[in-house]
Amino acid sequence: MLLLTLVALGGCGLVDHAGKEGTSEQGRDIFDLWRGSMIAALVVGGIVWGLIGWAVFRYRRRGDELPTQRQYIVPLEVVYTAVPVLIVAVLFALSYRTQRDVDALSSDPDLVIEVEGFQWQWQFHYVEEDITVTGLPDDPPVMVLPVDATVRLVLTSTDVIHSFYVPDFLYKRDVIPGVSNKVDVDVTDVGRYTGRCAEFCGLDHARMTFEVDAVTMADFREWVADQRVAGSDDG
Which among 144, 175, 203, 233 could bridge 157 via Cys, Cβ 3.0 to 4.6 Å? Predict the structure, then answer.
């Protein structure tokens, strides 16, 4: 009982520490799927342990008399065959729906950013705004995004495989040479988030980081105007 109590208490921080809700719509869809799967696993585990405990105490040996021996209990066998199949089917359907929603691309994104990974940093090119932000190993770039907007990321690589990963978004995608991966991200919460390459790509892989600055649309427009002014001054 002490061991079970410790395990139960250890699970109190399950949502806070083992998983976050995510700061993007896509991440929240993924988190909901994970949370539902964990609840289903806990329910199934509880039933299994309960049945084991019941069988241990109900049919423990009493003297030399054997319990009733039956070869088949068809209704019970149908139940414990059908229930797992049903659980797998439901989880498969929910996983398929979540993956479809997460990978869906908008026909009219609010912002398009071309993300180029290279050894060992990132370059962000805002297509319509004609703004380019390039990082250095000692000076990671900052991707400024508006919240409550659909942002299209076009991911490419010039050398080896990288991986675009923002842990707070609960979402990542490989960046592959010769392949243009497109993803839509809808950030919901204003804040500063750390991004990194999640695929080992060489000597300075650990330094291939970046920041995401999620701001309001008004602040984003102000940032775009400042970048254009700075570009004109440099010219």
Answer: 175
